[in-house]
Design goal:
249 residues; 2 domains; 4% strand; two-stranded parallel ribbon
Length: 249
């Protein structure tokens, strides 16, 4: 298939295109502009020496130990955004606000790996043990003031590592006004800790630098149809898990 010839295909034909044949790049897209904005935010708090690398894959994730993170491929082209919305009913990170929240969250994981922050006793005292296993499901306490609100579904409550990433994302956002927004909340203690910790490592080079790219798009030889089959199956498992329990209030 000619490069980007898939753009004009009807949905049914497009679904038979392999992910590795999409020929997508981040350069020249809205993603590139949003990544540049995150880099400016890092520079504003003297963390410019940490430069996370990014790649396109099947979703938002930061592999353990890596100082870069993956972004879902469909955000790199409006034709694929439309397909994602038709197939899944929503697009994670399609608006600028949602995308920036996710970028800051994943960047927090990469920064943690780069400076080995979760190994610190003070980190554990504020967020818990990073070695705690991830649970298949979690029961967020809706409206809890012990955690910041960045991503939906009380995601900060799912694991100490996610609590860190959500807290950092709110701290980094120049428009969050976290000091006044979280005044009187127990979560403010964690935000102040992040503020002090970032001042401590400001200007320092990262202790760890990696370049691995897990499940990078050029390596994925299955079709869009198979991608959505797997994604819908995962979604159904999550929905069944949510229906089987009541959220705490």
């Amino acid at each position: 298939m000619a490069r980007r010839g898939w753009v004009a295909l009807e949905d049914e034909a497009l679904l038979d295109v392999r992910l590795c044949d999409l020929g997508l790049r981040i350069a020249g897209t809205q993603l590139a502009a949003r990544l540049a904005r995150v880099e400016r935010e890092l520079a504003a708090v003297d963390l410019a020496r940490f430069r996370p690398y990014v790649w396109l894959s099947t979703g938002w994730f930061t592999p353990h130990g890596m100082t870069g993170f993956a972004i879902p491929f469909f955000l790199a082209h409006p034709r694929l955004v439309r397909l994602e919305r038709r197939m899944m009913g929503e697009v994670e990170g399609d608006t600028e606000r949602a995308c920036m929240r996710l970028l800051r969250h994943e960047l927090a994981h990469a920064l943690d790996h780069a400076h080995r922050l979760h190994r610190r006793r003070s980190w554990r005292e504020h967020f818990g043990r990073f070695s705690q296993p991830y649970r298949a499901s979690y029961r967020p306490v809706l409206g809890s003031r012990r955690f910041v609100a960045n991503l939906p579904h009380g995601y900060a409550q799912s694991h100490p590592g996610e609590d860190w990433a959500e807290t950092f994302a709110v701290w980094l956002d120049p428009g969050s006004r976290w000091r006044s927004r979280y005044a009187g909340w127990p979560a403010l203690r964690k935000l102040r800790y992040v503020d002090g910790l970032m001042r401590e490592i400001a200007g320092r080079p990262p202790a760890v630098r990696t370049r691995e790219r897990s499940d990078a798009l050029p390596e994925l030889r299955f079709t869009l149809r198979e991608y959505y089959r797997r994604k819908r199956a995962r979604q159904q498992r999550v929905l069944r898990g949510r229906r089987s329990r009541d959220y705490l209030r």
